[in-house]
Records
---
Amino acid sequence: MTASSNRLSENKRSLIAVISSMVVVNMVYGLTLPLLSLVLDAQGISKTVIGFGILVQASAGVVTAPYVSRLMIQFGPARLMQLATLTTAISLMALGLFQDVVLWFPIRFLLGASAAILWSASEAVINELVDDNWRGRIIGIYGSAGAAGFALGPIVLITTGTQGLMPFAVTTLLIIIAGLPLLWLQVDNHNNEDDEHVNLLKVFRLLPHIMLLNLTYAAAMESFIAFFPLFGINFGLTSAHSLSLLTTFAIGGMILQLPLGWLADHVQRQRLLLSCVFLTIFGFILLPQLILSEIIGPLFVFTLGGVEGMIYSMGVIMLGQHFRGAELASASVLFTGMWGLGTMLGPVIVGIGMDFLGSNSLPYLIATIYTCYLPVYFIMRRKLK
């Protein structure tokens, strides 16, 4: 076998490993946000406090952001991702063993930190492994794996229920299984003299509209995942029906990102991104009118999940277009930090909004979040020209 063939084989194994890591990260969010929201709601905890619990979990990504790229350079992404997966599994099991709102705050912080490290490293590695001609398709597969992780969360809850230790134990086992391919990961350590840590503020200034895109997406997406079961129940759906629609939403992201990823390699990517944002806004506005339909409702939720999921994938694609090496590592860390900041802000704002405006306001609050991003996008894009 030639050196080139060996390199190609190693890249394939590494891609499988990195893509599997997205299943791990998104499974955590796909399960913990609706599960912990339902558990706390059953305990009589207000939606505002539920939102603050999510804020603590998300804040870990912001707090750890200045250090993650240095850790990747020092230890290498492979070892860092393996340790983060193990910490994620331990933290999730601890949540199941100690079901108390006060104890959950520090445990959720640790869970959020390990997930953020895994996310940052995986984004940097996958963009380093692929060429730009195939970037959209590979990132589409990467995004589909993430959506599959989101889908597994509600499926686990439908199967195990939301009470007791079982949903936590089953998800911990699934995380360990999904993380096993990381043992194959072979990526060169970024520890040479040329790969120095890049200032995060400098990276932000190079691509501010894409960094803020991830903040916006996280604020909207995590709010939807956390509060949709409560919205559905208030809207007249059963808990199981709400969770099944949440699964349908995630499956839409899993399947539709494949053709949309192909499209990203064949059209102007900025236009595709804006199209996804506009369609997502109108989709959430229409959601309450269509969700009760037995046929149209699931089809609509499926399509909305695919279109909204592509917003995140487009951000990852554009990071790979613009950055390389240590700069890409720092950009990926900042991108994940923006996710953490969005997850901190979104559920708190939406939780407060739902307390004041009612649970039925959820889709309109999410549409408003995306609408507020549009002028920011156009202003910052214009300044870069």
---
Amino acid sequence: MKTVCAAIIREKGMILVSNRPASKAAAGKWEFPGGKVEPGESFGDCIKREMLEELALEVIPLDVVFDIIHHYPAGAIRLVFLRCLRKNGSEPVAKEGQEFRWIPLKELRELDFLEADKALCELLIPPEDGNSL
């Protein structure tokens, strides 16, 4: 089973999401940006590398907020979500032809997310009482 890390970057009530580029499986689906963990790589090192490769974004990984195993038709993946901070002055740039957006948490349901990411979306969307992860 492959392990994938994804970044949860929240700022001022917004969260960073990106879509899958045309060159990748599930093109056009939305996801939290990240990618595959390389052999011997820590989750923190993975997310720093992936964010630079995909979005030219420097991040500081903080902690794991959600960890899920999801079964796709092609096989299972372990998806580890890390809360990250964006380094001062670092701005995202789409390096793989993908789109990215800063959106309010309440709008997460409006995007067509990858199945593995949907469980986290439900945890992040603020309930009526305003409490969320």
